[in-house]
Fold this sequence. Notes:
The chain is α/β, with parallel strands linked by helices. The protein has 2 domains: 2-99, Rossmann fold, CATH 3.40.50; 108-181, no CATH class. It is 24% helix and 36% strand. Strands 1-6-7-8-9 form a 5-stranded mixed beta sheet. Strands 3-2-4-5 form a 4-stranded parallel beta sheet. Residues 161-185 are annotated as: Disordered. This is Recombinase A.
Amino acid sequence: MVAGSTSLLLALVSEASRAGSWVAMVGLDGVGLLAAEEVGVVLTRLALVPDPGAQAAVVVAALIDGMDVVVLGPRVGLTGADRRRLMARARERGSVLVSTAPWAGASLVLTVERQQWSGLGAGDGRLRAQQVTVRRNGRGRAAVPLRREVVLRGGSVRAATATGSNDLRGSGSGGEPTGALRLVG
């Protein structure tokens, strides 16, 4: 699940589409194609279904069968049983389901807690980058909460540190690594 930032969602989707994955966005009528293209989403590998209607579960199931990544917006009305069936289908097909709305049992939850834009001057300029505080939690390795500052710029996600690494590791109470936020796709 990705919550609180369309910019983070698009940055993650752009990594997948640039790597050759097919992406579908369902129930996200507010996503701008120009913004998606500017951060690197390959539009020829993107399918949009603004409103899946009453047959949302059937629509999403069909997309899982043909797409690598399926992003679900808040307008996708699914029951708990629908969600369980769709998660099982995605696992079976090797697809990734990403929700922008709360999803019980999500393996990974990324929530943007704070956002700050840069690039504007006094009366001039253009928004160039966004620094966000991302909180990670979930199940398995993601069960240990992690909070990191990252910079979103041109479709990339980078740590807001001097190292410039995109492997955002936390550490447990003994200083050992506890897992990472890593771009995959």
